[in-house]
Amino acid sequence: MADVVVIGAGIVGLACAWAASRDGARVTIVDREFEGDRASHGNAGGIAVTESTPIAVHGMFTKAAKWLIDPLGPLALDWKHVPKALPWFMAFRRASEPARFQAISHALALLNNRVYDDILPMFDDIGASAMLYRRGALTVYETDEAFAADQPEWSFKRELGARWHALNAQQVRECEPSLAHVFRHGVFLDDWSHIGDPRRIVTLLRERVRALGARFVTGFARGIETPGSVLLEDGARVKGRRIVIAAGAWSKALANSIGDNVLLESERGYNATLPKHGVALTREVIFAERKFVATPLDVGLRIGGAAEFAGIDAPPNYRRSDALLALGKRFIPGIDDTDAAKWMGHRPATPDSLPVIGASPRTPSVVYAFGHGHLGLTQSATTAALVADVLANRAPRVPLTPYSIARF
Ligand SMILES: Cc1cc2nc3c(=O)[nH]c(=O)nc-3n(C[C@H](O)[C@H](O)[C@H](O)COP(=O)(O)OP(=O)(O)OC[C@H]3O[C@@H](n4cnc5c(N)ncnc54)[C@H](O)[C@@H]3O)c2cc1C
């Protein structure tokens, strides 16, 4: 029997397997397809430590109504999916209420402010340090109105620990000369960084976890049979003293199998990656009004964004990748889209933007590590450090109450 069975070999599950193995645990990791595509492969590559406010920002709901009118805008709902997702949307609305917004932000900052403490040793150990580009990031604004409207949030982020400074139009041009000359303001984010290739990080971490002695089992986990047994689709069972659920957007059914309830949606995001882009962007750029980002990865310029709620099984609508690419061409003139690759991935989204980390209140041998939404890469090693604390019965380095599944 393993000491720890981890379900899910995305960036979060692998990081948990890595941390537990380094603590001396015998680890088995289960995934339905170790090489298959997943959110952790195609994300924007941002170590987005500044993002310590929830997605449900007060005042976004009027904007959301406008976004929904545009079928290829930054937010899309499949109306057939809305009844099923209604409790999630109601909880999302509640997360924007001032007191809750503040509490969530402080809990996010507790994680984000220690990201480098945890991720640097992990990257070092897997041989990925040279692929971490600590060049900050740049948020750009086309209008004075949008820049002014965001000031309270920027001030609050500074209180939460984010380092940033405002740039004028000239400074934006000097910072990123490839951008169209339409940006009147910028916010330079000192501590944001990006990686060269999210997929490569997953591969390096997987190889390292294997080298540390973890057993790999290919199979789809249907549920947890307590105590300590994971039932696979083919009827086989994988046994472990502790079980970590890190199955990204698919984690809800596994939590339900031991009677824990959670609100979790797939917030589907899209991108286009341009291997021959031909422009010289230095750092990740966040386009504030248009809600998309461009990251200069080693594998090409990745232009991504969109939040589509259509359930986990709906086919991708790659016209969203086309729409993002069109925005990229408009705001980064001259990019070459030869051999552009389109992609869709499932962000595992909770309504309050907080991940689910910690032991199940019903079945303490089961430990949760999912629901990281937009920040799964960023918070992967920190989540793993906390999960390792729980598995080793150490006091967690951050109090885990805000992330407990009990909040649902
Ligand atoms: C467009 C886009 C851009 C993003 N940009 C960023 C960014 O810049 N920075 C950042 O930090 N985050 C970003 N994210 C979010 C980030 O990618 C995710 O939060 C993160 O990848 C989630 O990792 P995970 O390991 O939880 O899930 P996944 O990567 O989805 O992995 C889950 C794994 O579980 C396996 N699995 C699921 N169910 C089962 C089962 N029942 N049995 C066996 N195996 C199972 C799957 O096969 C998969 O391997 C972005 C996401 C998207 C979509």
TrEMBL record:
Keyword Oxidoreductase attributed: yes
InterPro entries to which the protein is assigned, alphabetical: FAD-dep_OxRdtase (IPR006076), FAD/NAD-bd_sf (IPR036188)
Gene Ontology molecular-function annotations: oxidoreductase activity
Domain of life according to the entry: Bacteria
Boundaries of every FAD dependent oxidoreductase domain copy: 3-389
GO cellular component, one term: cytoplasm
Pfam assignment, any one: DAO
Keywords: Oxidoreductase
Record's protein name: D-amino-acid dehydrogenase
Organism: Caballeronia fortuita
Lineage of origin: Bacteria, Pseudomonadati, Pseudomonadota, Betaproteobacteria, Burkholderiales
